[in-house]
Amino acid sequence: MKVINFAETNSVLNQYVAEIRDVQVQSDRMRFRRNIERIGEIMAYEMSKELTYSEKQVQTPLGIAPVSTFDDDVVIATVFRAGLPLHTGFLNVFDRAGNAFVSAYRYYKDKECRTVDVHIEYIATPDLSGKTLLLVDPMLATGESMELAWKAFLTKGTPAKLQIACVIASQQGVDHLQRLFPGDEVSLWCGAIDPDMNEHSYIVPGLGDAGDLAFGDKL
Ligand SMILES: O=P(O)(O)OC[C@H]1O[C@H](OP(=O)(O)OP(=O)(O)O)[C@H](O)[C@@H]1O
Ligand SMILES: O=c1cc[nH]c(=O)[nH]1
Ligand SMILES: [Mg+2]
User: Fold this and answer.
1) ipTM of this complex prediction, to 2 decimal places
2) Which H or E run contains 78?
3) CATH class held by domain 1-50+70-100+123-141+154-213
4) Model-level pTM?
5) Domain extents for the chain?
6) Ligand 1 atom 17: the closest Cα is on which residue?
7) Helices 144-154 & 171-180 angle (0-180, nearest 10)
């Protein structure tokens, strides 16, 4: 799996990542969601460069214009809840894309909240056979949610191409996906890669709980 880490380059994306992490800023939920969304818009633009292009002829009022556009049949897939603003950012850019959703939420199997498991209930997706699947979720911690979402989507057809995007990844989550996707067919695009996770499998330094910051606490 190829890994692209936007934190290694200088761009305005880093400003938005700083704001979603910043305890002084992240409590403004609308700003938090909008920052995730515009990180998605920028990632979508960068990822669009990796699609397959061919020249088209466009009829203008005054003649024919040759233009190179992509031919991929794009489907944007995300994981409830925190994935929703990131999905919106991608859809703002790939406005003709198909859309796929899965509910994958983490829960603690033990009362000490040290062992995380992931539960999937709901999946809504078009046929994914032959599609270019953009699987996006703001947080990549243990990698369980991303892995289970991928396996759930695979039951609805085998995509021709998979590109994964997350805003904050743990090194462990990157390594987990590296084991799942050996070779360089799949690319993982990260806003930043953080070194650790705490005992509750939250990314450190991370940003906290992305779903709660975007939509409020859950029971
Ligand atoms: O890599 P993992 O260890 O699976 O953790 C990452 C997942 O955890 C968060 O979802 P959560 O389960 O908190 O649900 P939420 O998005 O509704 O908050 C986040 O949105 C990712 O989906
Ligand atoms: O740090 C983390 C890890 C998983 N999910 C989150 O929302 N934050
Ligand atoms: Mg959460």
Assistant:
1) 0.97
2) strand 74-80
3) alpha beta
4) 0.96
5) 1-50+70-100+123-141+154-213
6) 81
7) 30
